[in-house]
Structure formats: structure tokens, C-alpha cells
Amino acid sequence: MNILYGVVGEGLGHATRSHVVIEHLERQGHCVKIVASGKAHEFLLKNHRNIEEIGGYGFAFNESGVDLNASLKKVLNDIPSKAPHNLKRFFELSKSFRPEAIISDFESFAYLFGKYNHIPVISIDNMQVINRCRLDIDIPLKMMEDYLMAKGLVKAKLAGCYHYLVTSYFFPEVTKQDTTLHHPILRKEILAAASENRGHILVYQTSKSNPRLLDTLRSVGEEFIVYGFGREDVIGNVTLKNFSNEGFVSDLASSKAVIANSGFSLISEALHFKKPYLAIPLDRQFEQMLNAMYLKKLGYGDYCTKLDAKATENFISQIDRFSHDLEAYSGDGNEGLLSHLDELILEIAEVQ
Questions:
Q1: CA separation (Å) from 337 to 133, 221, 244?
Q2: pTM score of the predicted model
Q3: Spatial distance between the Cα atoms of 83 and 221, rounded to a whole number of angstroms
Q4: Tens of pLDDT along 98-150?
Q5: Which H helix or E strand runs over 313?
Q6: Coiled-coil stretches, from where to where (predicted)?
Q7: Which of 174, 264, 279, 350 could serve as 292's disulfide partner, Cβ 3.0–4.6 Å?
């Protein structure tokens, strides 16, 4: 089957997840055409030939998180240059490729192509949990505006799909039809690595997000391996490392706990290795706050809005309890979602 696969360019989590799915589809004999923007295009281009770059619209950030006003300004500034390019690609693709199914990882170009041409669209992402499930957590009143904005955006961006395959490490009640929850999709490097405990705490932050981070960590009596500062150094109990995929996976798998932002992909990988997680969600990013709140609810970790010595020490004092609760967590090695995807593609083929 010919499949058009769209991948949103914000961050790398969508791209690494999509890479796993695309490899599976190609092993099944499908012809997959990829459209992606930003970092997703850069990553997928290293592994796939049948890919085209499109213009994407991303968030703008300040030192504390998402800057909504700057994000809106950025989108408006990008439209004159990116919209004509995307429109040209849209109609060129109509002539050169005839997809029978569309898959979108929170990406609008492929979704709109499917809707315009009456082709079934399958959604694969973690964001749809915000709109298609009953969240069994208490959302603070001060976050209600961010929640409603996020829910509206998620609902509008990929409305009316053939089916929604939603990846999640928490499983609230599904409230809408054609929706199923599945364990997170994990890249093969994670599945191949063995979990152990060498005693260090893995930290993934940047000096821009927390300029006093190193002072905070040096005041705590633990060994830390820190990624995100873009340099190699050893400062007392803190080891700074430049990013490498192999090194990061090794340090993650061998850590005793993780401290990082609340991105879905890293949380999913840490939970796979049963590592307690202290999350620092980006401000005004409801999806990150949701991830953090469920970490705490499930007993897998905690969260704080500002990482300081007190928050770090409080988390460390509970690592044993979090590790105990994590023993109940288990995934399915991608099999559940990929098997369901195969069934959906077969359904689509049978009605065409």
C-alpha cells in the first residue's frame, strides 16, 4: 500500500517514534512517502530516502518556557514564506504520489492532504490523550486556560481521523470513538539496552533554562551526569557530557534516577528502564504539565516548577519508594500499537 506519513518538526520525539513505525511499515512491504519539517526532517533524512521537506510552524521559547505571544508572532511571520512552498508541494505531491492511507504524527500537511483527497487518516501521537480521554487528575484553576487552549488545538488540528492510536504511559478512560491507548513506542536502542544502577543521577537541562543548575547539583551529595550544556567537564560531583546517542542511552539505562523536562519521549524511555523521574515542566506547556502530574499520581516520580537544592533532595529521599512503585510498570515492546496499525491498514485496503 502507498502511505503518506507526516511528522511534525517540533522536537525530536515525534521523529524518533515515527522512524520506528516507518521501518515497520516498510518491512511489511508498504511504500512510505514522508513529509516532515524542522528537526524531524533533519533526523529522518539520515535514515530514509523517500522524504520531502515542508515548512513547519513551531513554538517560541523564553527562559521559563513557551512564550505564547512570541509564538503567535513567529507563526504570522512564517506564513508568507512557508505557506506558498507548502501549497506548491501539496499539488506536486498530488501528481507524483497516490497514497491509499495517510498517517500523521501531529502533522497538518499530510492530514489536510488526506482530507482534501478523501483518503483515510490514521493519527499516531501522544497529544490526543488531552482531547479524547477523561483526565482523572485535578487540573489547578491557574492552569485551566492552558488546558482549554491545548485541548482546543489538539482537537482542531487532526479532527475526524479514521482512527486515533494514542501513545501513553497513563491510561485514563477513553471518551471518544475510534480511539485506542497504547504503550509508548520505543526506539530500538532503548529496547536493546539493559537496565542497571551505577549510582549516578542523569540530568538533562541547559544553562539557559537553569543558569544556577551546576551550583544546585554541587550542593547535593550525589553523583550527577549532566547533558545539555554543550561541553565536557568534571566539576566535583558533576560530570558534564556532550550529547551522543550511544552515550546518552548508556547513561540513562545505568542511572538510578532522572531529572529533566517533562517531554513525553524521555519520560517513556526512563520508565521503560524503571527509573524514578523528577520532571521540570516548561511553563505554559500543558502537555508537559500533564505528563508531570501523572508521574506524581502514579508514584513514578515527582515534579517541580523550579529545580533547586530542596526539590532535588526531596526527590532523592523518595527514590526507593518511586522504584518500588515502578515495578508495576511494563510496556509491550511496541507490539500492541504496531499490530493494531497493521489491522487498520488491512481494513482500509479491504474497503478500497
A1: 18, 42, 28
A2: 0.91
A3: 52
A4: 999 999 999 989 999 999 999 999 999 999 999 999 999 999 999 999 999 99
A5: helix 309-316
A6: none
A7: 279
- 36, three cell numbers: 516532515
Which of 9, 20, 56, 76 has its CA nearest to residue 341?
20
Strands (DSSP E) along the chain, which ranges?
Answer: 2-7, 31-36, 51-53, 101-105, 121-125, 133-134, 163-167, 173-174, 179-182, 201-204, 224-227, 233-235, 238-241, 257-260, 277-279, 301-303
Please report the DSSP string for 24-42 in residue order: HHHHTT-EEEEEE-HHHHH
pLDDT in tens, 137-185: 999 999 999 999 999 999 998 999 999 999 999 999 999 999 999 999 9
The Cβ-side half-sphere exposure at 103, using a 13 Å CA radius, reads: 28
For the domain spanning 189-326, the CATH number is 3.40.50.2000
Give CA–CA dist 270/275, Å, rounded.
5
In sequence order, the β-bridge partners of residue 179 are 164
Query: At the topology level of CATH, where does 2-185+334-351 sit?
Result: Rossmann fold (3.40.50)
3-state secondary structure of 67: coil
Grid cell in block for residue 257 = 534516577
Question: Where are the domains positioned within the chain?
Answer: 2-185+334-351, 189-326
Q: How far apart are CA 309 and CA 315, in angstroms?
A: 10
Q: CA-to-CA distance for 111 and 309, rounded, in angstroms?
A: 45
Which residues, 6+ apart, have CB-to-CB distance to 285 below 8 Å?
65, 66, 146, 262
- 153 — alpha (psi -120 to 50), left (phi > 0) or beta? alpha
